[in-house]
C-alpha cells in the first residue's frame, strides 16, 4: 500500500498545485474502514471529494483542506456504490411485466404498463439509489431503455444506466409477440444475417451498450449464420456481445463468438475445464443471477399467501408496493386452482436442483479467476428492483465466495460490464464520488450490506431511510 499511497498523495498534491480554488467546496469522509473495490482495505480512511469526484483517498496521512466539510465516520464502513449488472426497466417485479408467466392482461393491460414504464422509469431510480445501487445495466428491453443513460447520467436522484435495448432470439416472431407492444418490440427473431447486421448498426447508433442474444439454438443453421454475422458486425462497430446462455454448450459457443458478458448461470450441468479456460482467456464477465429463479416461486406463492416485503427503509415506490400488496387479488388468473399446490412444490423442487448446480458453477468460476459481476435480473416476478441486490449478495456468499471477495464483484466488475469502469466502481482519484456507508463490515458477511445508512451519488450524500427531495 505504501507505493499506491504515494501515488495517491502525488495526485492529490498536483490537484492542489494546479487548482487555486482547492480550499473551497470540499467534502471529506474520515475515519471509516474503506474497501476500494480493487480488493484493498483502507483503515481509518480519508476520502476527499470536490465537484462530485474523488480528489484524494488514503489513510489518515491524507492532507485535509482547511475549509473542508468533514464527516466523521469512525466505526463505519465504506464501499463504492453497488452495481447491478442485470436489470429490466420494462418489468415491474410482478406478473404484469411477464404475461408469459401469468397472463393478467385483462386487469392490467401490457400496452398500458409499457407506456407507464416508459413515461416514469424514475420510480425505480430512487429505489435503486436508496438500496445502495449507483449503477444499473438494463440488458434487454424496448428502445426507450437506451435513452435512460442520458436521462439518468446527470440526475443525482438516479443511478447511472447502461442499456442494450431489444433482444435478438432464435424463437419465431409469433411466439415473441406476447412480449411486444406493436409497433415497438423488445423481442426480435434473428432470422437472417442481413437483418442481424442492420440491427447492430441501428442499435449502436441509438447508443446501446451491448447487443443481447436471448438463447442460442445450436441446431438452427440459419440462426447460427445470422449470429455469426451479428458478432462480426458488433466488433466492427465497437459494441459488445451479451448472451443469455444457461446451457454449457451454448455458453461455450457464446464465448467463441466473442461474448463479453454472459448473463445467467450455466445451470444444466457442471462447467468443465474447457469452459473455464475459454472464459478466463476471453475475459468474459459471468453474471450469475442466482435469485431470479426462486423469485418466480415467491411471486406465485404470493397469489395465495400475499407478498412479504423486507423493506425496512421503505425504498420501494408506492405503485410497486400497492401492486405487491394486492397479489392475492390475482389468484383467480391461475386457471387450475386444484393444481396450484402441486405446481408450487414442483417449482420449488426445480429451484433447489438448479440452485445446487448454479452455486457449484459459481464457485468453480470464481476459483478459476473469471470475472463475476453482481446481477439480479430485477424486474422479473419476485425479483424486485433495488431490494433484490441484498438477496443476490447473500446467495453469492452461500455459493462459497468469501464476503471480502464479493465486494469487487458488486462494484468494480459491474462497472466494467457497463463499460464505465473509468468513471465509477472503485474509490480512486478522478472517479465519481459514488459510494455507500454501512454500519457493519461487508467483508465479514455479505448480509451486512443491509446495514446501509447513506448513499453518495456524484458527491451528494444522503440518508437512505429518508425519501429524496425532488
Please characterize this protein's 3D structure.
The chain has 2 domains: 118 residues, Roll (Urease, subunit C, domain 1), CATH 2.30.40; 289 residues, TIM Barrel, CATH 3.20.20.140. Helix 8 packs parallel to helix 9. The chain has a 6-stranded mixed beta sheet with strand order 3-2-7-17-18-19, with no helix packed on it. The chain has a 4-stranded mixed beta sheet with strand order 5-4-1-6. With 470 residues, the chain is an alpha/beta fold. The chain is built from 15 helices and 19 strands.
Count of distinct strands? 19
Q: Helix count, per DSSP? A: 15
The proportion of strand residues reads 15-25%
The average pLDDT score comes to 94
Give the biggest sheet.
Answer: 6 strands, mixed
Regarding CATH, which class of the largest domain? Alpha Beta
Strand order of the largest sheet: 3-2-7-17-18-19
Bulk shape: globular
Q: What does the oligomeric state look like here?
A: single chain
CATH architecture heading of the largest domain = Alpha-Beta Barrel
How many structural domains does the protein architecture include?
A: 2
Structural class: alpha/beta
What radius of gyration results from the CA coordinates? 22 Å
Assign the CATH topology of the largest domain.
TIM Barrel
Q: Tell me the span between the first and last alpha carbons.
A: 41 Å
Low-confidence stretches: 1-24
Report helical residue fraction: 25-40%
Amino acid at each position: 500500500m505504501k507505493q499506491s499511497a504515494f501515488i495517491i498523495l502525488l495526485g492529490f498534491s498536483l490537484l492542489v498545485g494546479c487548482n487555486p480554488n482547492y480550499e473551497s467546496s470540499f467534502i471529506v469522509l474520515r475515519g471509516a474502514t474503506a474497501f476500494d473495490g480493487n480488493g484493498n482495505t483502507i483503515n481509518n480512511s480519508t476520502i476527499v471529494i470536490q465537484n462530485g469526484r474523488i480528489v484524494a483517498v488514503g489513510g489518515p496521512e491524507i492532507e485535509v483542506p482547511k475549509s473542508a466539510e468533514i464527516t466523521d465516520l469512525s466505526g463505519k464502513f465504506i464501499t463504492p456504490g453497488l452495481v447491478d449488472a442485470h436489470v429490466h426497466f420494462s418489468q415491474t417485479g410482478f406478473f404484469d411485466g411477464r404475461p408469459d408467466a401469468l397472463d393478467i392482461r385483462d386487469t392490467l393491460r401490457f400496452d398500458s404498463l409499457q407506456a407507464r414504464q416508459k413515461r416514469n422509469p424514475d420510480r425505480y431510480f430512487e429505489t435503486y439509489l436508496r438500496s445502495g445501487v449507483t449503477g444499473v445495466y438494463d440488458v434487454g428491453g424496448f428502445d426507450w431503455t437506451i435513452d435512460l443513460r442520458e436521462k439518468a447520467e446527470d440526475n443525482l436522484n438516479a443511478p447511472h444506466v447502461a442499456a442494450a435495448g431489444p433482444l435478438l432470439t432464435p424463437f419465431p416472431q409469433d411466439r415473441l409477440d406476447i412480449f411486444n407492444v406493436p409497433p415497438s418490440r423488445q423481442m426480435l427473431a434473428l432470422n437472417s444475417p442481413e437483418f442481424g447486421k442492420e440491427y447492430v448498426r441501428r442499435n449502436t447508433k441509438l447508443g446501446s451498450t451491448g447487443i443481447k442474444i436471448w438463447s442460442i439454438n445450436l441446431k438452427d443453421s440459419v440462426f447460427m449464420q445470422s449470429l455469426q454475422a451479428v458478432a462480426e458486425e458488433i466488433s466492427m462497430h465497437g459494441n459488445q456481445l451479451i448472451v443469455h446462455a444457461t446451457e454449457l454448450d451454448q455458453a461455450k459457443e457464446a464465448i467463441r463468438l466473442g461474448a463479453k458478458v454472459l448473463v445467467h448461470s450455466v445451470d444444466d450441468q457442471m462447467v468443465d475445464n474447457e469452459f473455464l479456460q475459454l472464459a478466463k482467456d476471453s475475459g468474459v464477465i459471468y453474471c450469475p443471477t442466482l435469485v431470479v429463479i426462486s423469485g418466480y416461486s415467491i411471486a406465485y406463492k404470493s397469489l395465495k399467501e400475499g407478498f412479504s416485503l423486507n423493506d425496512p427503509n421503505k425504498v420501494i415506490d408506492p405503485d410497486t408496493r400497492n401492486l405487491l400488496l394486492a397479489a392475492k387479488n390475482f389468484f383467480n388468473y391461475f386457471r387450475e386452482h386444484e393444481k396450484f399446490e402441486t405446481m408450487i412444490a414442483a417449482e420449488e423442487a426445480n429451484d433447489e436442483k438448479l440452485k445446487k448446480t448454479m452455486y457449484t458453477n459459481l464457485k468453480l468460476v470464481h476459483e478459476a479467476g473469471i470475472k463475476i459481476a453482481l446481477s439480479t435480473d430485477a424486474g422479473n416476478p419476485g425479483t424486485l428492483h433495488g431490494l433484490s441486490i441484498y438477496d443476490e449478495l447473500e446467495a453469492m456468499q452461500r455459493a462459497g465466495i468469501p464476503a471480502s471477495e464479493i465486494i469487487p464483484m458488486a462494484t468494480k466488475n459491474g462497472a466494467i460490464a457497463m463499460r464505465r469502469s473509468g468513471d465509477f466502481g472503485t474509490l480512486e482519484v478522478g472517479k465519481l464520488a459514488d459510494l455507500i456507508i454501512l454500519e457493519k463490515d461487508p467483508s465479514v458477511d455479505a448480509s451486512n450490506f443491509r446495514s446501509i445508512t447513506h448513499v453518495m451519488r456524484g458527491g451528494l450524500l444522503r440518508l437512505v431511510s429518508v425519501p429524496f427531495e425532488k
